[in-house]
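Backbone shape codes
____________________
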Amino acid sequence: MANPRQPRDLIFSLSFGAATAALAIAFMLTVVATQPARAQTYTVLHNFTGGGDGFYPKAGVTLDQAGSLYGTADGFESYGYGTVYKLTHQGSNWSLNPLYEFTGGSDGANPEARVIFGPNGTLYGTTYAGGTYNGGTVFNLRPYPAVCKTALCPWAETVLYPFSRGADGYYPSPADLIFDQAGNIYGTTIAPSGNGVVYELTPSGGGWTESVLHSFSGYPDGAGPFGGVILDNAGNLYGTTESGGTGSGQGTVFELTYSMGSGWSESILYSFQGGSDGGVPLVGLIFDPLGNLYGATSDGGSGGGGTVFKLTPSGGSWTFSLVYSFTGNLCGPEGKLVMDGAGSLYGTTACDGAYNQGSVFELTPSNGAWTYRSLHDFCAGGYPCSDGRFPLGNVVFDTSGHLYGTAEQGGTDDGGVVWEITP
């Protein structure tokens, strides 16, 4: 029988893959025996310096089957145009290898999303800017075919699609790409017109063809799909927008459904009002095994620091329920949640927490209610926050129940950190 505390990756992103990564299916469990993190030890694994390792890691990390971590660092002005890196555990230490440094030209600039493993075991991601038209890119990284004989082994980049700054969308959102079973890629952009699109990339003739599945208009369908999309097992897409919708325009949860002859159509599952329900959902969604959706808002709620919410399907509609309200000031979660096998939720807040510099949290269900526990509050020692500050990305478990993530700033050079919480 499966360990009831194994984490469930229900976002169809293949984030666990190595060279033989296989396609995931919505509602399928990532089968790893683990225990949830208990916040007993917090460790900084890497301090970003602004050199070849990059600066300002906005996104979280991805694990391979060997336990290595992969991620991106954004870079900023004099610190370059960003990197993709690999962290490998060597004895009691971790060693960082920059896999690719962006030049800001046709190869792209400023990666703000995670890299994920595709069905062929190589890495896929986006850059916010750069590319042929400076509208951002979708890219692929793979090792060079020749055997690497040096300590640092860079990977080769291929741009799959450069956004044209037109109706095809541009400025890809800081969210994971996802694959369907046929190998098509789905993602979102936050432009044009500040509204954004949902797009699909289809492999064709050795290249990739982009199709816009939905262009957002702000009202009533929402605007700014920062959180990307996920797939269910019927091929429907689900996501959030950070603004727009009906009522006070505080964002939406949406579904895109495909039908032959008419293409893709959007349905609004929920429009946020910015009160006790929260507002400005920058975070994408996850499924639980029963088909319920979970997500978070960065604003609103009774404590002013954002919320975690649940949407339950019932009779062709969806019922909204509040899971938790954070205390803070417009600084709730900006990275996707993860659920363990016991149904507990884990994530980060951008700048809530005891010191207003962010936190890592656990929400545990019990008798119809949820109990909040802080696993780490950043910057307990004061500025410059050697443990990091402003965690904007997701968290991930390894097979031993260790929890990993990043903080965008703080650390020895105030360029951000990669961290681990050990049970």
In short: The two ends are 23 Å apart (CA to CA). The domain at 41-422 is CATH 2.120.10.30 (Neuraminidase).
